[in-house]
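Narrative of activities, Objective 1.

The group set out to show that a structural description can be obtained from nothing but a protein's sequence at a throughput compatible with the screening campaign. Below is one input-output pair from the validation batch, recorded exactly as produced.
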Amino acid sequence: MAIITDLSGKTAVITGSNSGIGLGIAWELARAGADVILNSFTDSAEDHAIAAGIAAETGVAARYICADMSRGDACRALIARAGACDILVNNAGIQHVAAIDAFPADKWDAIIAINLSAAFHTTAAALPRMRAAGWGRVINIASAHGLTASPYKSAYVAAKHGLVGLTRVVALETAREPVTANAICPGYVMTPLVEAQIPDTMKEYAMDREQVIRDVMLARQPSKEFATVKQMGGTAAFLCSDAAAQITGTTINVDGGWTAL
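Output recorded for this entry:
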């Protein structure tokens, strides 16, 4: 039997959602009937046009709200400005790669703030609204790096491990309520940002496109295929369905077998 997710009457707030994984999730939740709030730190006409496009195609209400997810007060203000928040998708994130002894302190602070602390602040602000509504879903976009590690990614790995831990705590604190909290742990997902990296990587390794994808970018992903943003959105929509009402405090790995190794 097909799993039907009808999110009519629900409002989803998706952080970091004007492109990539966040935007893919916003589209799938909107197609399931949820009103959506898009977010990023910019506030351009294009950002608002993306929301308008979702509304026009799906018939839901869609808005864009600018918020700097490195600031706790701005994270909480995002939830307040959204009004309703039945579904919270903490997706905003940044990355920096360097050895620990050369890792810039300001980069560490920014990654921890945006990738981890922001989820604490938005969740703390959203939970009272979910409880008042009698239903809620917290979905944290962690990473395969929330379950394993790679060199030179100390801040990212620490933040994503922390995000998985935060997810489990939220699940335990809401276990007797109609609220669930789960983490999606993607491996490599084909996004515009990843696509843009392929030509430079081809030059760096003197490889063709197929070799770079298989042997460099997807070296740790056994399927040798990128996940897609549509798959990420479908996974999020599933976690909002009635079929997932007893799935809480866990991780769903969309990583082509990476964490099975």
